[in-house]
Amino acid sequence: MITISKQFSFKAKDFFDYLDQQLITSIKQARNNMPVTLQAGTEYEQSGAKVKITEYERGKVYAAHFVSDRFDIIIKYVTEDNNQGVKITFSEEMLHFEREKHGKLQTMFYNWQLKMGANKELKRMADNVYANMAA
């Protein structure tokens, strides 16, 4: 599992405003525009993956389990408002990677790739939050 934390100048509310908008749009598309309630247990399909929201508390935590024939991933965002804005902790766990079947070098490279991907994902989300705030 990879976990990273970063500080941003917006608040948890701004992050969840953007995240909720993205989730509601995706879920509505998957459910032929039926009403959406964001909560733990909500399930839908997106881009060939089955998605289940496993934790959801607006302003605090969002976690989801994504499963397809190519991957099995759990992602989680935990937000904590502070005087500078919000600290966001992002974690990603690839459930199908079996470390014992790979050498030490392969495992180190895999972990490095996950960490780089996690940093890019958190930056992408923050950039989208800032853009959403400006709109």
- Multimerization state: single chain
What does the radius of gyration come to?
Answer: 16 Å
Structural class comes to: alpha+beta
Number of helices, counting only DSSP H or I runs of 4 residues or more: 2
Structure, described:
Helix content is 37%, strand content 36%. It has two helices and six strands, in the order E-H-E-E-E-E-E-H. Strands 1-6-5-4-3-2 form a six-stranded antiparallel beta sheet, covered by helices on one side. Strand 5 (72-82) and strand 6 form a beta hairpin.
Considering the chains and any ligands shown, give keywords for the structure.
alpha+beta, 36% strand
Structure summarized in a few sentences:
The chain is α+β, with helices and mostly antiparallel strands and 135 residues long.
Question: What is the element layout, followed by pairings?
Answer:
Layout: E1 2-8, H1 12-30, E2 43-46, E3 49-57, E4 61-67, E5 72-82, E6 85-94, H2 104-134
Antiparallel strand pairs: 1-6, 2-3, 3-4, 4-5, 5-6
Helix pairs in contact: 1-2
